[in-house]
């Protein structure tokens, strides 16, 4: 990738890390000082607290205590093992468990954005790749790349790396990296499908015949399969991570009530009780539908492989959620849509600038809200 684009994205990402970190720290300070009896803590502790909330506690428990599974109750088996394993490894070097989680995200998130821009430059020109990198860096839920103790940054880094290796013709390394990625999140079918279709498409575009080697991407699900084998050995149930989704508090039970999004319509359209919650759920639904609307344009501009990947990586969680909550964050994994959006906005500079401005402002607000312990995704 040309150095000008690389430097620009690097500066933007560095600025975002600092600005979002400051916003999350301010949010944590406000939350902590709601109780006047809380002790005085150092500024760096506010920073760590700002990026540790909600699902972070599950990763902490897995890293320190291992997995537990109680049928019918919320259990840690819902969270895949790669991220907590890395937390445990970093913690052994000295930082505490929360600092370790934040450090991993601070490393993986910026690297994912930089690598994404390199991947985009492989498929298009420098200017469009730069626009795509800016769109992704300023996407409101990219706060999960800038410090939040969640696994999204790690997963996206690995998946982007896998597709970049595939574009460069390195099939074996691409499959290996993808297999590691599928141990981080339960979306292995999307990764396998995307890599396989893209590999076959890549060979066809070069006028080369397919061979058995080209079907190696089916092995990308080995990380996913290894976790299922662990669950089978440890708890006697290889799909325990699916079953706990229906536990009280999560209540993502497969069935028509979930598939038809009855809960979303009740809480957003028919009988909203909390305007803030209704707005939040509506925003997640909007971004989900926007990503799905970009599947066909992605097919036209980037090919069937990336369209299949986006459809699966967005469609699987969208189908299984009862109210779209969390989808804004999950869409970070649908990285090709940011390049598609940049291509569509090439001739619409005012719209692009507006999207970047609104995204950047929302990014700071959501970072503060996350630090203040509001449920944003």
UniProtKB/TrEMBL annotation:
Lineage: Bacteria, Pseudomonadati, Myxococcota, Myxococcia, Myxococcales
Protein name per the record: Lipoprotein
UniProt GO cellular component terms: mannosyltransferase complex; membrane
Keyword Protein transport tagged: no
Stored PANTHER family: GPI MANNOSYLTRANSFERASE 2
Pathway(s) this gene product operates in, as recorded in its UniProt entry: Glycolipid biosynthesis; glycosylphosphatidylinositol-anchor biosynthesis
Compartment annotation: Endoplasmic reticulum membrane
Organism: Corallococcus macrosporus DSM 14697
Chief location: endoplasmic reticulum
Topology class, membrane: Multi-pass membrane protein
